[in-house]
Amino acid sequence: MARAVTNRRKSVNTILAWIVGLVIFFPILWTILTSFKTEAQAISSPPVFLFFDWTLENYGVVQERSDYMRFLWNSVIIAGGSTLIGVIIAVPAAWSMAFVPSRRTKDILLWMLSTKMLPAVGVLYPIYLMFIRLGLLDTRTGLVIVVMLINLPIIVWMLYTYFREIPVDILEAARMDGASLKEEILHVLTPMAVPGIASTLLLNFILAWNEAFWTLNLTAAKAAPLTAFIASYSSPEGLFFAKLSAASTMAIAPILILGWFSQKQLVRGLTFGAVK
Amino acid sequence: MGRIVLDKVSKRFGDVEVIPPLDLTIEDGEFAVFVGPSGCGKSTLLRLIAGLEDVSGGNIAIDGSDATMVPPAKRGLAMVFQSYALYPHMSVRKNIAFPLKMAKMDQAEIDRRVANAASVLNLADYIDRRPGQLSGGQRQRVAIGRAIVREPAAFLFDEPLSNLDAALRVGMRLEISELHERLKTTMVYVTHDQVEAMTMADKIVVLRAGNIEQVGSPLELYHTPRNVFVAGFIGSPKMNLIDGAEAAKHDAHIIGVRPEHIDVTPSGGIWSGKVGVAEHLGSDTFFHVHDTGLAETITVRAPGEVSFRHGDAIHLTPRADAIHRFDAQGLRIA
């Protein structure tokens, strides 16, 4: 039987949900609004909300002072490269754990996840030294590697849970139908796992795009992505709020647009298995 | 063709021996049914024949050649799974064509065989649908279609009807039996349902804890069960098993009488008791009789018009020629 929900309760819940949603969204909205203000209006007290002189001046200044496209390109390379390599490594790993589990598979999965519980700053020093020795500091290659490794446990976990949802009967049916291992993977497994692989790619791309700790600490100028671009406008002195906001807006815009277009896939991917 | 010979085949999972070494021969064209309670190893045995599990010992020969180490794809067997195991991303047509495509058959021949299977199984109207858009019975037909197009040496069925509702199950049972009549191909069928076993099989293999308890035709098992387990497992309702003094009268440790071999009268029978539940099926009535002093309940099958009510006194007479006798080990006394 469906649980009875009164109309009044429904509208109260809707209003509450909207309030929570707006509170969470407010900082982003405020950043975007501030990016269109003058520096004086940006710090005016009381703050102005919508009624100010809208200007694009900040965007012009930001573009003039720093090469946005270079940072954007670095972000694309780091997020895209780390995601692609990560998935290539994770697919066979997750496959073997899902379909040929050993007695230690659960332990390995937990151990991999435990590396995500370690504070990143705890390994910054050794990794920084290694990067100096290997000449990887401030290189896109170095960042692709480190960001890929940071997110690898999550990719393996996500793919593992997707693969676990694929009934083993279907793979056995393919075997009985005369499919070789290659044909089984190509014609049966992969087509069935495509939604899972796609949402893993997407989520991981977003995580890598937003990754700030390592990108800030291991880059200087050459390989710096958009996170460093934002950070370069945060200054303890001077009037930079509006410009910082403009830089932030430019940095988050691509990922917001990507997220907007792929939200259906993303939600489906994140709830896959939980609801059928 | 499909003669399957198991020679001292055994299976262990780690330290647990699921199937102790056993021998079994399934003749070409035979409809063999593995039946037993859940966990008896019947599905494992089928998977060993399929090659989906590796044997721990012994040999499996299909058609006279050793198939023990041959991968499932190369054994020339087709399998129908309990869950249907259709490819969800392919249409019915592509599902049925898949094994032919894997066999690198040419497209014209594939089309011909798929069309043929679809018409035999009444799937022509659904041929371009995905499995998700089909009912359980239709999905099962697609699974069978996928198995028959290959013209395999033998069909393996792993509880194929247990996900269907009762009415559909009876219908599919007949369809599979008819298919066997038409194709004359070896079929190995696993079920826990002794009615399916009795109605479909040429040969029933009764399994318990990985051991073969008896192999025989349905009527052999019904008339001469080799031991108490088979006696209780085959037949519905179950055979009444009685021990103690009444069994001793027949020089046995346990005697068994099937419900249909007991005559009921209002007075004067050999045994007497009180009617508990009476189940009226119309054609027959099952009486569950208590207070007989023999066993907790004696089940009796009487013609539908015989009428006793709950609590009535009832007198029972077992037919002398239909009493099965078993010794202290539970084995049949000839």
Based on the model shown, name its key terms.
heterodimer, A: 276 residues, MetI-like fold, 12 helices, 73% helix, globular, B: 334 residues, alpha+beta, OB fold (Dihydrolipoamide Acetyltransferase, E2P), six-stranded mixed β-sheet, five-stranded antiparallel β-sheet, 9 helices, 26% helix
Write the layout of secondary structure elements.
The complex is a heterodimer of chains A (276) and B (334).
Chain A: H1 7-34, H2 39-42, H3 57-65, H4 68-99, H5 105-114, H6 124-134, H7 140-165, H8 168-176, H9 181-210, H10 213-217, H11 226-231, H12 241-271
Chain B: E1 4-13, E2 16-26, E3 31-35, H1 42-50, E4 57-62, E5 65-66, E6 77-80, H2 92-102, H3 107-120, H4 136-148, E7 154-158, H5 166-183, E8 186-191, H6 194-200, E9 203-208, E10 211-216, H7 218-223, H8 228-233, E11 240-243, H9 245-248, E12 254-257, E13 262-265, E14 271-280, E15 284-290, E16 298-303, E17 313-318, E18 323-326
Parallel strand pairs in B: 3-8, 3-9, 6-7, 7-8
Antiparallel strand pairs in B: 1-2, 1-4, 4-5, 9-10, 11-12, 12-18, 13-17, 14-15, 14-17, 15-16
Helix pairs in contact in B: 2-3, 2-4
C-alpha-based Rg of chain A, rounded: 23 Å
Which sheet architecture does the biggest sheet of chain A show? Answer: none
User: What is the fold named in CATH at topology level of the largest domain in chain B?
Assistant: Rossmann fold
Q: Give the DSSP E fraction of chain A (strand runs of 2 or more residues).
A: under 5%
List the helices and strands of chain B in order.
Answer: EEEHEEEHHHEHEHEEHHEHEEEEEEE
CATH architecture of one domain in chain A: Orthogonal Bundle
The level-1 CATH class of the largest domain in chain B: Alpha Beta
Mean pLDDT of chain A: 84
CATH topology of one domain in chain A: MetI-like fold
pLDDT under 50 segments of chain A (min length 5)? none
Full CATH superfamily name of the largest domain in chain B? P-loop containing nucleotide triphosphate hydrolases
Number of β-strand runs of chain B = 18
Oligomer: heterodimer
Low-confidence parts of chain B: none
Q: What's the tally of helices of chain B?
A: 9
**What's the number of extended β-strand segments of chain A?**
0
Query: Approximately how much helix is present in the residues of chain B?
Result: 25-40%
The best one-word shape of chain B is globular
The CATH superfamily of one domain in chain A turns out to be: MetI-like
Calculate the mean pLDDT score of chain B and round it.
92
